[in-house]
Amino acid sequence: MVHFGTTFDDTRALTIDAINDKTQQAFPEVKVVEAYTSRIIISRLKKRGITKPTPREALLRLAADGYTHVVVQGTNIIDGIESEVLRNEVAQIAQFFEEIRVGRPLLYSINDCEKVTTLLAERYKKSTDKNGAVIFVGHGTSTPANAIYSQIDYMFTANGYPTFHVATVEGYPTYDTTFDRLKADRSKNITLVPFMFVAGDHARNDIDGEWREKLENAGFKVSTIIEGLGQIPEIQDIYIEHIKNAFSAPVIDATAQKASYIKENL
Fold first, then answer.
1. Less Cβ crowding at N or C end of the chain, within 10 Å?
2. How do residues 87-96 score in pLDDT, each as one tens digit?
3. d(CA 210, CA 203)
4. What topology is assigned to 2-107+232-253 in CATH?
């Protein structure tokens, strides 16, 4: 299980530790280990006496212990830079295993996105009563995968929840584009919710800090729900499903997949 990581003990227990434990319960016959990708977080935790390995360190340790088959599942929200780096790192170490597979992030397929929008709308719909709007604030990325945020935003509207919005700290939609929509909707009561696996630095400083302050200064009544997506049981279940798919799905690259599709349609 690969996580970006967090220095906040409370959200780590509710998200990272929770999904690790749930994975072990779902696959009792399999050894479950964790790794963190953020070197900064790893360093800060080490100063507190908490040691977290990187994916490379965890995998090399498994290889040294004699493990031959591994599934690597990240808790990334989208298939962005973090997922890309993880796949590249796994590819560099693949020679030490008979087989190694990488599971998909939370939002990979259309079905994933539909599931998430449905369960989030149900979970937070009361916050849209009385001229209310909900803004899910994600991290954002510089890769084309950033389009997933706009897709989720569109799905909320298409599924009958036009006062549910998705914005990002470092991508698109931005604070400004979302602010314009709030004004057009004539929303008055805003609920900010992290669209991130853990409710860490961004949730506390950007969402419950800067974004809340800017919206309040603009005349909105603002509340925040500081909980990570990773502490929602139904979200955890999607990751577990992706792990199951990684176990059972055949290993196939893009070229082989395209060739198979052509053969089927001749």
1. C
2. 999 999 999 9
3. 10
4. Rossmann fold (3.40.50)
Average pLDDT, the chain: 92
Q: How far is CA 42 from CA 4, 5, 7, in A?
A: 10, 8, 9
* Closest to 226 in 3D by CA, of 162, 137, 153, 150: 137
Fold of 110-230: Rossmann fold (3.40.50)
The rounded distance, in Å, linking the Cα atoms of 261 and 255 is 10
Q: Provide the residue ranges of all domains of the chain, joining segments of one domain with +.
A: 2-107+232-253, 110-230
The neighbour count for residue 75, using CB atoms within 10 Å, is 26
Q: How far apart are CA 77 and CA 202, in angstroms?
A: 15
- Fold equal for 2-107+232-253 and 110-230: yes
DSSP at 207: I
Length of the chain measured in residues: 266
- Active site residue ranges: 139
Q: Which residues contact 266 (CB under 8 A, 6 or more apart)?
A: none
Confidence of residue 262 (pLDDT cuts 50, 70, 90): low
